[in-house]
Protein backbone atom coordinates (compact mmCIF):
# COMPACT_ATOMS: atom_id res chain seq x y z
CA UNK A 1 0.00 0.00 0.00
CA UNK A 2 1.30 3.43 -0.86
CA UNK A 3 0.88 6.54 1.19
CA UNK A 4 3.01 8.82 3.25
CA UNK A 5 2.84 12.21 4.86
CA UNK A 6 1.10 15.14 3.19
CA UNK A 7 1.77 18.59 4.61
CA UNK A 8 -1.35 20.69 5.13
CA UNK A 9 -1.83 24.45 5.18
CA UNK A 10 -3.51 25.32 8.48
CA UNK A 11 -3.80 29.01 7.59
CA UNK A 12 -0.88 30.16 9.72
CA UNK A 13 2.35 31.80 8.62
CA UNK A 14 4.02 30.61 11.85
CA UNK A 15 6.73 28.09 10.84
CA UNK A 16 6.31 26.27 14.15
CA UNK A 17 2.78 25.19 13.11
CA UNK A 18 2.92 21.93 11.17
CA UNK A 19 -0.13 20.29 9.63
CA UNK A 20 0.09 16.68 8.46
CA UNK A 21 -2.12 14.00 7.01
CA UNK A 22 -0.78 10.46 7.21
CA UNK A 23 -2.12 7.88 4.80
CA UNK A 24 -1.34 4.32 3.88
CA UNK A 25 2.14 3.25 4.96
CA UNK A 26 4.58 5.82 6.34
CA UNK A 27 8.13 5.47 4.99
CA UNK A 28 11.44 6.20 6.67
CA UNK A 29 12.08 8.98 4.12
CA UNK A 30 8.84 10.70 5.11
CA UNK A 31 9.76 10.41 8.80
CA UNK A 32 13.27 11.81 8.18
CA UNK A 33 11.73 14.82 6.39
CA UNK A 34 9.39 15.41 9.35
CA UNK A 35 12.26 15.11 11.83
CA UNK A 36 14.27 17.62 9.78
CA UNK A 37 11.36 20.04 9.93
CA UNK A 38 10.97 19.59 13.69
CA UNK A 39 14.70 20.15 14.20
CA UNK A 40 14.50 23.33 12.10
CA UNK A 41 11.70 24.67 14.31
CA UNK A 42 13.66 23.72 17.42
CA UNK A 43 16.84 25.40 16.08
CA UNK A 44 14.87 28.65 15.73
CA UNK A 45 14.20 28.56 19.48
CA UNK A 46 10.59 27.41 19.25
CA UNK A 47 8.59 24.25 19.78
CA UNK A 48 6.33 22.83 17.11
CA UNK A 49 2.57 22.79 17.34
CA UNK A 50 1.31 19.91 15.19
CA UNK A 51 -1.97 18.83 13.66
CA UNK A 52 -1.93 15.19 12.53
CA UNK A 53 -4.82 13.56 10.69
CA UNK A 54 -4.53 9.79 11.09
CA UNK A 55 -7.89 8.81 9.60
CA UNK A 56 -6.26 7.20 6.52
CA UNK A 57 -3.12 5.91 8.29
CA UNK A 58 -2.56 2.15 8.01
CA UNK A 59 1.00 1.32 9.09
CA UNK A 60 4.65 2.35 9.14
CA UNK A 61 7.74 0.72 7.72
CA UNK A 62 9.85 -0.88 10.44
CA UNK A 63 12.60 1.65 9.67
CA UNK A 64 10.26 4.44 10.86
CA UNK A 65 10.52 3.05 14.39
CA UNK A 66 14.32 3.21 14.12
CA UNK A 67 14.15 6.86 13.04
CA UNK A 68 11.79 7.74 15.87
CA UNK A 69 14.05 6.13 18.48
CA UNK A 70 17.15 7.77 17.00
CA UNK A 71 15.49 11.18 17.30
CA UNK A 72 13.43 10.67 20.46
CA UNK A 73 14.91 13.81 22.01
CA UNK A 74 13.59 15.89 19.12
CA UNK A 75 10.09 14.56 19.69
CA UNK A 76 10.22 14.97 23.48
CA UNK A 77 11.66 18.48 23.52
CA UNK A 78 10.72 19.85 20.10
CA UNK A 79 6.92 19.58 20.23
CA UNK A 80 4.74 21.77 22.42
CA UNK A 81 1.41 20.21 21.47
CA UNK A 82 0.04 17.74 18.96
CA UNK A 83 -3.59 17.29 17.94
CA UNK A 84 -4.41 13.87 16.52
CA UNK A 85 -7.55 13.46 14.44
CA UNK A 86 -8.46 9.78 14.70
CA UNK A 87 -11.37 7.52 13.89
CA UNK A 88 -10.43 4.58 16.10
CA UNK A 89 -11.20 4.47 19.82
CA UNK A 90 -8.03 2.60 20.72
CA UNK A 91 -5.92 5.37 19.14
CA UNK A 92 -7.66 7.97 21.27
CA UNK A 93 -7.01 5.92 24.41
CA UNK A 94 -3.34 5.38 23.50
CA UNK A 95 -2.83 9.09 22.86
CA UNK A 96 -4.30 9.92 26.26
CA UNK A 97 -1.95 7.45 27.96
CA UNK A 98 1.11 8.78 26.13
CA UNK A 99 0.12 12.37 26.98
CA UNK A 100 0.32 11.49 30.66
CA UNK A 101 4.01 10.56 30.45
CA UNK A 102 5.47 13.09 28.00
CA UNK A 103 6.45 16.74 28.36
CA UNK A 104 4.39 17.68 25.29
CA UNK A 105 0.62 18.03 25.26
CA UNK A 106 -1.16 15.45 23.12
CA UNK A 107 -4.87 15.44 22.47
CA UNK A 108 -7.09 13.16 20.40
CA UNK A 109 -10.00 14.54 18.41
CA UNK A 110 -12.69 12.62 16.54
CA UNK A 111 -13.22 13.09 12.83
CA UNK A 112 -16.18 15.35 13.62
CA UNK A 113 -13.90 17.65 15.67
CA UNK A 114 -11.49 18.71 12.91
CA UNK A 115 -12.13 22.45 13.34
CA UNK A 116 -11.59 22.15 17.10
CA UNK A 117 -8.31 20.24 16.55
CA UNK A 118 -7.01 22.91 14.17
CA UNK A 119 -7.99 25.72 16.56
CA UNK A 120 -6.25 23.99 19.47
CA UNK A 121 -3.01 23.69 17.48
CA UNK A 122 -3.14 27.30 16.33
CA UNK A 123 -3.81 28.57 19.85
CA UNK A 124 -0.65 29.84 21.51
CA UNK A 125 -0.05 28.52 25.01
Give a description of the structure:
The termini are far apart. The chain has five helices and five strands; from the N terminus they run ββαβααβαβα. The chain has a single domain, classed as STAS domain (Transcription Regulator spoIIAA, 2-Layer Sandwich), CATH 3.30.750.24. α1 runs parallel beside α2 and α1 packs across α3. With 125 residues, the chain is of the alpha/beta class. α4 links the parallel β4 and β5. It is globular, with a radius of gyration of 14 Å.
Brief overview:
The protein has 125 residues and is of the alpha/beta class.
CATH class: Alpha Beta
**How many domains?**
1
- Number of DSSP E strands: 5
- In which range does the helix fraction lie? 40-55%
As a whole number of angstroms, the C-alpha radius of gyration is: 14 Å
Entry keywords:
alpha/beta, Transcription Regulator spoIIAA, five-stranded mixed β-sheet, 42% helix
Per-chain topology:
Layout: E1 4-8, E2 17-26, H1 28-43, E3 48-60, H2 62-70, H3 72-78, E4 79-86, H4 89-99, E5 105-110, H5 114-122
Parallel strand pairs: 2-3, 3-4, 4-5
Antiparallel strand pairs: 1-2
Helix pairs in contact: 1-2, 1-3
Amino acid sequence: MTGGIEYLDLGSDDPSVIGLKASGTITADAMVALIDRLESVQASGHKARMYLDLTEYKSSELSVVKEKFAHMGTFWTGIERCAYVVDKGWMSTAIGLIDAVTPMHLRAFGTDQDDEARAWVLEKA
